[in-house]
Write a structure and sequence with these properties.
- The protein is of the alpha+beta class.
- It has 2 domains: 6-223, Hsp33 domain, CATH 3.55.30.10; 229-289, CBS domain Like, CATH 3.90.1280.10.
- Helix content is 35%, strand content 32%.
- The chain has 10 helices and 15 strands.
- It has helices at 26-33, 39-56, 103-107, 135-147, 177-187, 192-197, 200-208, 229-239, 241-251, 269-277, and strands at residues 6-12, 17-24, 63-71, 75-83, 87-94, 110-118, 121-129, 151-157, 162-169, 213-215, 219-220, 222-223, 254-257, 263-267, 287-289.
- Strands 1, 2, 8, 9, 10 and 11 form a 6-stranded antiparallel beta sheet that branches.
- Strand 13 (254-257) and strand 14 form a beta hairpin.
- 35% of the residues are buried.
Length: 290
């Protein structure tokens, strides 16, 4: 059984190549409980969550990274988010029965968007077309087109585990082409069973036992949703009084349900009047976890 809910960094010290490995267990299973779709579709979310942890660990920032795949096919939306402190959440939406296949089979014509928001920098967004047999292939296209760094990614998921492996040339120390190709060739021998069953140290020994690899301490990963009543209040204020009063007139309540964690927020007439006045504490603080 692999180490659970951990991210490990590793380095080929003599080659100018770095790597990342992640295994999600409790965090992945918690994310699944808040989504309702067929098992084979859910596995796409598991791969996306593993991927966004890996990608967020390739940069230094204080904020969040969002991976979003959108298309016109039966699988409409896939969103995975990771923060700098390894908190993850995600959602997946499909309109019709999804037959597992290539990204084009599932999403149709679509795009892959990576968005980074940071406290100390302007938001960054990279967009590429959604192409390839799987999410790992699409992300490799992203790195080729947007980051211009040689990067390879392997992603696997089942009902209980989601795992990922990434190897990448160091930005300031491009590796020798033969060294890079050898590392990729070795990594390419990995199987889904090995990724899902071996811990990081065992996997690295299996793949790279003839290389000099430095393995760093693991970083814990956990499911956590950043929704809150205060954030919902701020969003409602932006809609303005006429829009809010129109909804109240029609429905009697304003109800908001977080798609990531199924937290339910309810606002009645008194709540809305208080938030429009800018009161910091509302009399009705209803939150229901489904």
């Amino acid at each position: 059984m692999p180490q659970q809910d951990l991210l490990h960094r590793f380095l080929f010290e003599e080659l100018g190549v770095r790597g990342l490995w992640v295994s999600l267990s409790d965090s992945w299973q918690t994310a699944q409980t808040h989504q309702h779709c067929a098992d084979e579709v859910q596995l796409q979310l598991g791969q996306a969550l593993a991927a966004v942890v890996l990608l967020s660990a390739t940069i230094k920032f204080k904020g969040s990274m969002i991976l979003q795949a959108q298309g016109e096919g039966p699988l409409k939306t896939l969103v995975a988010q990771a923060t700098h402190d390894r908190k993850i959440r995600g959602l997946i939406r499909n309109s019709n029965t999804v037959t597992p296949g290539s990204l084009q089979d599932m999403f149709g014509e679509g795009r892959l968007v990576l968005t980074v928001t940071s406290e100390n920098a302007q938001p960054y967004q990279g967009i590429v077309s959604l192409q390839g047999d799987n999410l790992a292939a699409a992300l490799e296209v992203y790195f080729t087109q947007s980051e211009q760094l040689s990067t390879r990614i392997w992603l696997f998921a089942n009902e209980t585990q989601a795992t990922g492996l990434l190897v990448q040339e160091l930005p300031s120390q491009l590796s020798d082409k033969a060294d890079w190709e050898r590392i990729v060739m070795l990594a390419d021998t990995v199987t889904g069973q090995e990724m899902l069953e071996l811990d990081c140290e065992e996997l690295l020994h299996r793949l790279f036992h003839e290389e000099s690899v430095r393995l760093f301490d693991g970083e814990p990963v956990a499911f956590s949703c950043s929704c809150s009543r205060k954030k919902i209040e701020n969003t409602l204020r932006l809609l303005g009084r006429p829009e809010l009063e129109s909804v109240l007139l029609e429905r009697g309540l304003i109800e908001v349900n977080c798609e990531f964690c199924n937290q339910y927020y309810r606002f009645d007439k008194i709540d809305v009047e208080h938030l429009l006045r800018g009161d910091t504490s509302l009399p009705n603080d209803t939150q229901i976890q489904h």
